[in-house]
Amino acid sequence: MSTLEIRDLHVAITTQSGESEEILSGVNLTVAAGQTHAIMGPNGSGKSTLAYSIAGHPKYQVTRGSVTLDGRDVLAMSVDARARAGLFLAMQYPVEVPGVTVSNFLRTAVTAVRGEAPKLRSFIKEMNGAMAELAIDPAFAQRNLNEGFSGGEKKRHEILQLQMLNPKIAILDETDSGLDIDALKIVSEGVNRYREGADHGVLLITHYTRILRYVSPDFVHVFVGGKIVAEGGPELADELEASGYERFTALSDAGALSDAGAPA
Ligand SMILES: Nc1ncnc2c1ncn2[C@@H]1O[C@H](COP(=O)(O)OP(=O)(O)OP(=O)(O)O)[C@@H](O)[C@H]1O
Ligand SMILES: [Mg+2]
Hints:
Layout: E1 3-14, E2 20-32, E3 36-40, H1 47-55, E4 61-69, E5 72-73, H2 79-85, E6 87-90, E7 97-101, H3 102-114, H4 120-133, E8 144-145, H5 151-165, E9 169-173, H6 181-196, E10 201-205, H7 209-214, E11 219-224, E12 227-232, H8 235-243, H9 246-254
Parallel strand pairs: 3-10, 3-11, 6-9, 9-10
Antiparallel strand pairs: 1-2, 1-4, 4-5, 7-8, 11-12
Helix pairs in contact: 5-6
């Protein structure tokens, strides 16, 4: 069973004035296959920075700590090696890729991750099936990736990629944001289909308990000031919705939790 382990992760960015600024200050988190972890926290607390750092975005410098997948050093891997190892990131703001169709993008990505090109006919069948499950119009296969897509269409295509790439650990950064009620159900069903697969773990970053009613988390982590300051079960999300982050802001000055993987 796959396990993503994040230990004492510190991450900095270089500001426009050229100074180094710490964004993550000691994140500890363990996501094992079969588990769904939700991360909730105020704007600017570093949630996307955590997601990008795991995926290998070059802007984020890891200054301390470790990230391993089944004991293998993720931080030593290139971005594409991380994807081949079984990590996947659905981005908060999916990028537009002019000149590359959805179909071409998916076939290239699937080929890279699986290590061999799928037969064209079986690939198209697989892609059409996945698109139908996500209620995506088949015409999208020939459109340029994310170019001119609505916010909700972009998010749905992130789940299409998840379904096609079938990673071990999926990080979903606000994949529920901007979805209408029907789209939220469709996307949640996609995540749940993925969760049913063997050896799959989910790290779901969200601001809303709405998605957590469809995709029930095993653990909820409160992320404030670049680290996890509290954790619990699904009831913690309801508490956050009722009372906000005020109670937890003070905790962020007190220090990070030592191991966010274990239930309190
Ligand atoms: N490349 C960058 N250059 C400058 N500042 C950055 C950069 N990336 C992140 N930051 C800063 O780091 C902090 C954390 O940003 P991040 O996007 O990780 O927050 P977040 O928790 O995902 O917020 P949100 O809930 O709004 O998505 C913010 O103050 C942000 O401005
Ligand atoms: Mg974010």
